Amino acid sequence: MNPLQTLLKRLALGAAMLGALALAGCASTPVTTMADPGPTPTSDYLIGPGDNVNIIVWRNPEVSQSVPVRPDGRITTPLVEDLEASGKTSTELARDIEKALAKFIQQPVVTVIVTGFTGTYGEQIRVIGQAARPQALPYRRDMSLMDVLIAVGGVTEFASGNKATIIRTVDGKQQQFRVRLNDLIKEGDISANVPMRPGDVLVVPESFF
């Protein structure tokens, strides 16, 4: 057998193995067409690690301050140490700070303004694989697949865009949906632009051929 025949045989074997792996993956995790995701979530924004919170205490500028939410989800401000902030709305955090400050200030009135939005991990959208800039994105109301692609700079030249999938948790069960990135990006097919949901994972595979 000459070197060319050997190379062709190895390529054919590799293709067969990849096909078998793909079939095995499909058998274990069914991939379906994106269904109607229902109405857009309307829950209030929840503070997460990496956010910045501007704390304003009425008539007490000395304890009013902008602070980051630490990786452990807590904040530290003058007179208030290690207060849990992650997973709370700005209003809930303001009430908790008022309770903590009540030991030192008579009837404190607190307003919390969130800046530098990151959000809780459970509400972030993660993009992995052959995206130009794989990353985790804070979910925004009415966010679409196109918005996500713009945020990550599109896909690489090695991406198999029409084989991309969205992994989504529905009623406590993980489901996988096929999406058509090439049709959306290269063909301008708006029908391929689907709504995103908090916690979605967009997987962009690599094209082998």
What are the SSEs and their pairings?
Blueprint (H helix, E strand, L loop, with lengths): L2 H26 L2 E3 L18 E6 L7 E4 L5 E4 L2 E5 L5 H12 L8 E6 L8 E6 L5 E4 L6 H7 L12 E7 L2 E7 L1 H5 L15 E4 L5
Parallel strand pairs: 1-10, 7-11
Antiparallel strand pairs: 2-3, 2-6, 4-5, 7-8, 9-10, 9-11
Mean pLDDT, all residues? 86
- Helix tally equals 4
Low-confidence parts lasting 5 or more residues at pLDDT below 50?
2-9, 11-27
Radius of gyration: 24 Å
> From N to C, what is the helix and strand string?
HEEEEEHEEEHEEHE
Strand arrangement in the largest pleated sheet? 1-10-9-11-7-8
Name the helicity range: 10-25%
Largest sheet geometry? 6 strands, mixed
Shape: elongated
Instruction: Please give the number of β-strands.
Output: 11
Q: What is the beta-strand fraction?
A: 25-35%
Terminus-to-terminus distance: 25 Å
Any key phrases for this structure?
single chain, 209 residues, alpha+beta, six-stranded mixed β-sheet, three-stranded antiparallel β-sheet, 11 strands
